[in-house]
Structures are given as structure tokens and as C-alpha cells.
Specification:
The chain is α+β, with helices and mostly antiparallel strands and about 180 residues long. The chain has helices spanning about 5, 15-40, 60-70, 90-110, 120-135, 150-170; strands spanning about 45-50, 55-60, 80, 85, 140, 145-150. About 55% of the residues lie in helices and about 10% in strands. The strands form 2 sheets. A 4-stranded mixed beta sheet has the order 2-1-6-5. Strands 3-4 form a two-stranded antiparallel sheet. Helix 4 packs across helix 5. The chain is elongated and about 85 Å long.
Length: about 180
């Protein structure tokens, strides 16, 4: 057998068909998954209200915040839902943790008349269970585009504004961001 004989062996015409088929199936699945992700995405409410009916924030402010996030490349500093850079915090995890603590603290005061730190372990579990029920409740009205926060959620949101404003104003804490992002 001569060395040139190896290269003269004809390839099956099915390898090209297989590649084309794999590409077609792969791209079709990617397109379908993308459509499903957009269709199943959580809505951005037009308005978020506190229990007294005062506006906490609007959908336009959410969109504006998304633009600030993109403008300053904040995905280079932290992450959203655990996806992103490792220079800063997971913004969503930290905000949700603080929200959970605020609602749990409110539940502790409502159920037992004491702060969370002063509860027995059994009482703390009861406050945590109450907080879980409150946080899982869907208070979004899709017909009006309105989400209603509890008082604890509204207070937590307002405290988060101050926290993140201070965080982004500190250049030492925000390595990976281009300058002061606290606007």
C-alpha cells in the first residue's frame, strides 16, 4: 500500500449532510429557546406602588436604570442573577438578601413585637416562614401594569438606593467601573 492511496479514499457524501443537518437543528433550537425566553420573561410593571398607593418607582425608571447599567459597563463589576464578572457583588443576590431580611424583620415585629435579633430560634423560623409567604405572593396586576409592594418592601427598596449610591461613589469598592457611576 502506497502512502498516496490513503488520501485517495473517497469520503461518504453523508458527512456534509450530517454537518448541515446538525447546524440546522442547532440553530433552530437556539432560535426557539430565544423566543421562549423573551415570551416567558418577567414583566416590567408600569408602576410600583406602596400600600398607601404612592409611587415607589416606575417602569421608565427601570428602563433608565438598565441604560445606566449598560452605559457604565457594570457587568464588568458585578453580576446579575449570578452571571457576570467577579470584581464586585452579585447585585441581585445582595438586593434580594436585604429585601428578605427587611420583610423577615417586619414579620418578627408583627408576630412577636420584637426585632429579629431578639427572637428565639422557633420564633425566628416562624418569622422566616411568614416572610416567605409575603415574598411569594404575586401582587402584580397585569391589566393595570401595577405591582404593589408591602411597606417593608418599599422601605427596603428606598434603603437599597442609598446603599448602591454609596457603593458606586466609592472607587475602591467598584474596581472595574469607569469612574463614578453614582449618577
Amino acid at each position: 500500500m502506497h502512502a498516496d492511496d490513503v488520501f485517495e479514499t473517497a469520503l461518504s457524501p453523508w458527512w456534509r449532510r450530517g454537518v448541515v443537518l446538525a447546524l440546522a437543528v442547532g440553530f433552530t433550537l437556539e432560535i426557539l429557546i430565544t423566543f421562549q425566553a423573551y415570551r416567558g420573561a418577567a414583566p416590567i410593571p408600569e408602576t410600583v406602588l406602596d400600600p398607601e398607593g404612592r409611587v415607589v418607582f416606575t417602569g421608565a425608571e427601570v428602563t433608565s436604570g438598565q441604560q445606566v447599567f449598560l452605559k457604565y459597563g457594570l457587568m464588568e463589576n458585578g453580576s446579575i442573577w449570578g452571571h457576570g464578572a467577579y470584581l464586585g457583588p452579585d447585585f441581585s443576590a445582595l438586593a434580594l438578601h436585604e429585601l428578605g431580611l427587611a420583610v423577615q424583620g417586619e414579620a418578627a415585629r408583627s408576630l412577636f413585637g420584637r426585632d429579629l435579633e431578639n427572637l428565639s430560634p422557633a420564633e425566628a423560623r416562624a418569622a422566616a416562614a411568614q416572610a416567605a409567604r409575603i415574598l411569594k405572593e404575586n401582587r402584580y396586576d397585569p391589566a393595570r401594569g401595577v405591582l404593589t409592594f408591602t411597606a417593608a418592601e418599599a422601605r427596603s427598596f428606598k434603603s437599597q438606593i442609598a446603599f448602591w449610591t454609596d457603593y458606586f461613589a466609592d472607587p475602591a469598592a467598584t474596581s472595574g467601573t469607569p469612574g463614578n457611576c453614582a449618577d
